[in-house]
Amino acid sequence: MPSNKMMLYGYILILISSCATLKKNEMAEHQIELTNENLHLINGTYENNEHMRPPYLDYFWGSYLKAKEFKILSKEVTEEKNPYLITLKVVNKKKINATVKIKDRILKTYTIRGRIKNGYFEQNRKMYILPALLINEYHSSKFRIGLLENDKVITDYRKIEFGTVYFFQPYTNTASDYNQTHNSTEH
């Protein structure tokens, strides 16, 4: 079998078996199980909690950051220590609108698409493949939101990335963040 064909089969096998999956964990203490009927309970504005763990600025709250957004977020949040707020508004059982604000300025508005699974609103898997001459990359990520009794939301996140630089130097990057709580600003 030619080596090109073997490489192709190898890449296909890796892609099939390398999707980011969130661990199936027990419901957190004081967590309300989300259903299609009570999903509207997560409507509200929340302050992102980054005091417990460092933020993953490349992907947060179910959205990728563009270079401009990354620069603003890096400066405002990391350097100047300004919190950013996320407003969630349920559109229907498969969509939640999210608006990210820093100092009353809207940074980004987007829609999180997903479904209810195991008491959480779980985002559909986000994937991309970047085949290029210099850098080849595969990225897979998942995000989910849960609700706690004390007007807080809880988020879980996982990503898997791997690729090569100049086809010679392989790299991997895996990150996960579980049970991150975010306080409501409306009380």
Descriptive labels:
single chain; 187 residues; mainly beta; two-stranded antiparallel sheet; 12 strands; 50% strand; globular; Lipoprotein
Mean pLDDT level: 78
Radius of gyration from the alpha-carbon trace, in angstroms: 18 Å
Describe the largest sheet: 8 strands, antiparallel, barrel
Global shape: globular
List the strand order in the largest sheet. Answer: 2-5-6-7-8-10-11-12
Instruction: Compute the number of helices.
Output: 2
| Low-pLDDT windows of residues | none
Question: Care to count the β-strands?
Answer: 12
Structural class category: mainly beta
Task: Please estimate the helix content.
Answer: 10-25%
Beta-strand percentage?
over 45%
Characterize this entry briefly.
The chain is built from two helices and twelve strands; from the N terminus they run H-E-E-E-E-H-E-E-E-E-E-E-E-E.
Write up what this structure looks like.
The structure is a single chain. 18% of the residues are buried. The protein has helices at residues 3-17, 67-79, and strands at residues 31-32, 44-47, 59-60, 63-64, 84-92, 95-102, 105-117, 120-123, 126-130, 135-148, 152-165, 169-184. The protein is mainly beta and 187 residues long.
How is this fold's topology laid out?
Blueprint: H1 3-17, E1 31-32, E2 44-47, E3 59-60, E4 63-64, H2 67-79, E5 84-92, E6 95-102, E7 105-117, E8 120-123, E9 126-130, E10 135-148, E11 152-165, E12 169-184
Antiparallel strand pairs: 1-10, 2-5, 2-12, 3-4, 5-6, 6-7, 7-8, 8-10, 9-10, 10-11, 11-12
